[in-house]
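ok so i was messing around last nite and threw this chain in just to see what happens. nothing serious, just curious
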Amino acid sequence: MNELLRRLLFLPPQGTSLAREVDYLHYSVVLSTMAGSAVVAATAMWFAVRYRRRSPTTAGESEVAEAAPRLSYGFELAAILGLLALFVGWWVVGFRQFVKLETPPLDALTIQVVAKQWMWTFAYPSGAASNAVLYVPASRAVKLVLTSRDVIHSFYVPAFRIKQDAVPGQSTSIWFEAEQPGTYPVYCAEYCGTDHSTMRAQVVVLPSEDFARRLERLPPLDIPAADGFGSGPLVRSRSDGTSLARLGEGVAARHGCLRCHTLDGTPHVGPTWARLYQSDVALEDGTSVRADESYLTESMMDPRVKVRRGFAAVMPTYQGVLDAAEVGALVELIRSLRDFREAPSTTPLAPAGAPSVIPLPRSPLPQLRSPGDSSP
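result:
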């Protein structure tokens, strides 16, 4: 029945389990609306036949009114309550689907998506990148973190029933879990310029083993690096185990982020990035916010909007300084430090009477783990 209705309504294939749930709600609305329309049409036809003019003599309005059946108030009330219950039921189901779509699993594979006129670029946690083709593993949750380098775009995959805007200077996210290997088209659903119709891509779903091998063959993401990070002005090689988070460390060093922020929990001018991701951050105005991709990006682009309690508002804006790929690398670096644990200190105790030496805060990069690595 599901496949029959999908074809009758000219819907694209269902590439995810959530796509089926969305379609079931769609079927319910369409079939209920058609059934209601059929009842109204049948009732109108019955009245037209039952109370048609029977002779050349026109009956008076009072006679027609007396002959017409009168509906009880109870029937009218039941009809109104029934329609209201149907509306509330649809709203509840739709809201639950929305919440599910906005809440990715904690173990989801995070991929950075950068939109620009007129192409899509995808950056993977390993540091690999691809243009116009998004490679994902089958039967695994994938979270996309989107931003734009120029104007508003919209990442739309009809087969997955997902659509999310990519906004300049901001990060938005959406997730899905493709069930079967295959290829699914991607479109830009927001008019973005003269070549808007050519801004297309593909989602290629691969078995887990094929996905890992494909990542090994992809070229690295090119990000400017500071001295000591990578070889040359651009980080172009992953032969030394470079990941997107490691590239993020290079971005942080190049733009001076590590002058105020630390990676190991050490207090400093700005908040430490260790254990920051997805934590609840208290703000100066008494509210709190979840440190997700949206908050982190906003803090880089407009740091005065949400000032963290206990820290001075001295951070400058990086709007126009960081490009979208650099923002994605920094977010991935902070995300990799979510479960950071400080190594036990092996420094020997100073002898009694020795002068105290207070070292300056340092920001060594701890051993980073990829999002899918469960090893300690």
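not much to say yet. The chain has a mean pLDDT of 80.
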